[in-house]
Amino acid sequence: MAVVPTRTPLAVGRTAEVFAWNDDQVLKLFRPGWGIANAAHEAEVARALYAAGVPMPRVDDVIEVDCRAGVVYERISGPSLLAILRAHPQQLRPVARMMAETHARMHERSITGLPRLREVLARRIQAAPCLPTAHTHAALDALDALPDGDALCHGDYHPDNVLLSARGPLIIDWENAALGDPLADVARTLLLIRAGAVQTTSPAMRVPMRALTAVLNRFYLRRYRQLHPYAPERLAAWELPVTAARLSEGVEVEEAYLLARIRRLVRSATSRI
């Protein structure tokens, strides 16, 4: 069994840590409880996407390290868009444009064999433990009224999952890839960016972070809509099911925010009936 060469991760996420692995590779090491089947599934999806020309790192191997499952990827020399924003906040507009352009190009693809996003969202809404029953039904009813679609959707697209490389922007963390309406993926991105401000630990930073994320979302959405025009109400209709599905992921710091937003969305939908 392999051993991680260094115990200092390059990046830390909710489901995995990323370590240096040789000079030109990284190891995405899943946390205990995410078994080898999860790693093998991610690697299979990643290989299919890479072979289809999706802008992403090459996947090299699936291994087990210290009784944890891992996927070995090509190492990309370049910062994430989030790292660029943190170091150079004045780059917010070009970062937002790059986010939108990369996302829009991704949504022009369709890869066979991926799960259906509507089905993924339905399962997650039903699995959200703290979602009141009435709100579960409201979110599922809203989902039933929405279109399906065959666009490649990332499912976790945000500035820290886009790396700026010599080959251009590359997208990482494809474990949630699915086929569906691209506006569902856009709604998820907007939610993740807003939720990032909620996770800010410093109370003094929460207000400026919310203002920053609001501007980032506005610039991102403006550019995306230029490339893929849509009716605003179509995007708004995805917010309730996407927000309800997020609750199933157990991010405790977001729970109160998500529940409050769901209550507002349900009240707004009820008032229009």
Task: Give the gist of this structure.
About 50% of the residues lie in helices and about 15% in strands. The chain is α+β, with helices and mostly antiparallel strands and about 270 residues long.
Note the main sheet: 5 strands, antiparallel
Query: Can you give the mean pLDDT?
Result: 91
Helix count, DSSP H or I runs of 4 or more residues: 10
Computed Rg: 19 Å
Based on Cα principal axes, name the global outline. Answer: globular
Instruction: Return the string of H and E elements.
Output: EEEHEEHHHHEEEEHHHHH
Oligomer: single chain
- Percent in strands: 15-25%
Strand order of the largest sheet: 1-2-3-5-4
Could you describe the 3D structure shown?
It is globular and about 60 Å long. The chain has helices at about 35-50, 80-85, 90-105, 115-125, 135-145, 180-200, 205-225, 230-235, 240-245, 255-270; strands at about 10, 15-20, 25-30, 60-65, 70-75, 150-155, 160-165, 170, 180. Helices cover about 50% and strands about 15% of the residues. The strands form three sheets. A five-stranded antiparallel β-sheet has the order 1-2-3-5-4, covered by helices on one side. The longest helix is centred in the C-terminal third of the chain and has 25 residues, at about 205-225. With about 270 residues, it is α+β, with helices and mostly antiparallel strands. About 35% of the residues are buried.
